[in-house]
Design goal:
The complex is a heterodimer of chains A (234) and B (100).
Chain A: H1 2-29, H2 33-42, H3 46-55, H4 62-72, H5 74-86, H6 92-98, H7 104-116, H8 121-145, H9 160-172, H10 179-195, H11 200-216
Chain B: H1 5-31, H2 36-60, H3 63-77, H4 82-99
Classes of the chains: A mainly alpha (234), B mainly alpha (100).
């Protein structure tokens, strides 16, 4: 539990800045502080919440906001598919509860922990609990105090997330065989980010990387998984 | 403090939509038998998504962002702590922006 919270610590610094900024923007868009806390607690997704306040208008287009949230969240589908292997030892009922808290950072740090050995549900709980409480607190602080961090880019805070994800990518590196799918993902994401508005590039890049791995897959004898019987040629 | 019914509906709909995306992949992976080929695809997803998250900033936004990503990469390859990568990246980005 403490290990999970400890791993979250560097990430929380970045989360805190964005929570404060989002809380400020949300109040300016017309949400009350209570609504800010409710949204942070029930949605718990920075990307979805930023998109939502961008669409927040009077009267509220509830359907549009819900649909945009669904699209922004599509990347979670790919992430939670990869969490199945991670959570294989955990009863499904608990896993369905735990996945409510699967923000990008919690997902990435969990996979890193799996790579290092020592992933437990207590680790995950500590990680998510710390992130959740930080998000709720800092979005409320932003809502109450107003313009605390007016321009995170001025202080370089905006690149913190890029740095976090770069470090996590290096941890995932397994060798040259990762290169084709990673290159496909980078190209697709940059192209999509350039031509398509919104957050589609995350999903499109992830899907491009996955498809590349699927296309390049060949049934060679793998050292770790000994396959018995006839191969499943599909 | 006020809660507007329409705002409450929007928040609830957002919560449900986000939760559905967070469990959909897990549900699919549990209930659909996957071939070796599809499994290889899923194994590529974590790296591919992380790359997609950073690629526009690292390669196509500006010098400050690219330099910050490069500094983080260097720190990570050297196996220094993550906090060092964060501070160094933020400092480099802020420095370049102050000069340009």
């Amino acid at each position: 539990m403490l290990a999970g919270a400890g791993q979250a610590l560097p990430v929380v610094a970045g989360v805190a800045v964005y929570g404060t900024v989002w809380g400020t923007l949300a109040v300016q868009a017309g949400l009350s502080p209570l609504e800010v806390v409710l949204m942070s607690g029930l949605v718990f997704s920075g990307a979805a919440q930023f998109v939502a306040i961008d669409l927040w208008s009077s009267p509220l287009a509830v359907g549009t906001i819900a649909f945009a949230t669904l699209l922004v969240g599509l990347r979670h589908v790919l992430m939670s598919a990869s969490m199945e292997a991670v959570m294989r030892g955990i009863p499904p009922r608990r896993a369905y509860g735990a996945l409510f808290f699967m923000v990008d950072e919690a997902w990435a740090l969990s996979l890193r922990r799996v790579g290092q050995g020592g992933f437990t549900i207590a680790f995950y709980a500590g990680l998510c609990g710390f992130l959740y409480v930080s998000w709720l607190t800092t979005t409320l602080v932003g809502a109450l105090l107003g313009r605390l961090v007016a321009d995170p880019a001025r202080y370089g805070f905006d690149v913190v997330f890029t740095a976090i994800f770069v470090v996590l990518i290096v941890g995932l590196w397994q060798g040259k065989r990762d290169l084709p799918s990673w290159a496909a993902s980078a190209l697709a994401a940059v192209a999509c980010h350039h031509w398509v508005p919104g957050n589609w590039y995350i999903f499109v890049g992830g899907a491009a990387g996955m498809l590349t791995a699927i296309l390049l897959w060949s049934e060679e004898p793998q050292p770790s998984h000994s396959q018995s019987g006839g191969g499943h040629a599909d | 403090m006020r809660i507007d019914p329409a705002a409450l509906a929007a928040i609830a709909a957002m919560g449900i939509a986000t939760y559905l995306t967070r469990i959909a992949g897990y549900w699919l992976a549990r209930n659909v038998t996957l071939s070796g080929r599809v499994q290889a695809g899923l194994e590529a997803v974590p790296g591919a998504i992380l790359i997609a998250l950073i690629a526009p900033a690292a390669f196509a936004t500006g010098m400050a962002e690219s330099a910050a990503a490069a500094v983080a990469l260097m720190v990570a390859v050297l196996r220094w702590p993550m906090l060092v990568a964060l501070i160094a990246s933020a400092a480099v980005a802020a420095g370049i922006r102050a000069v340009i």
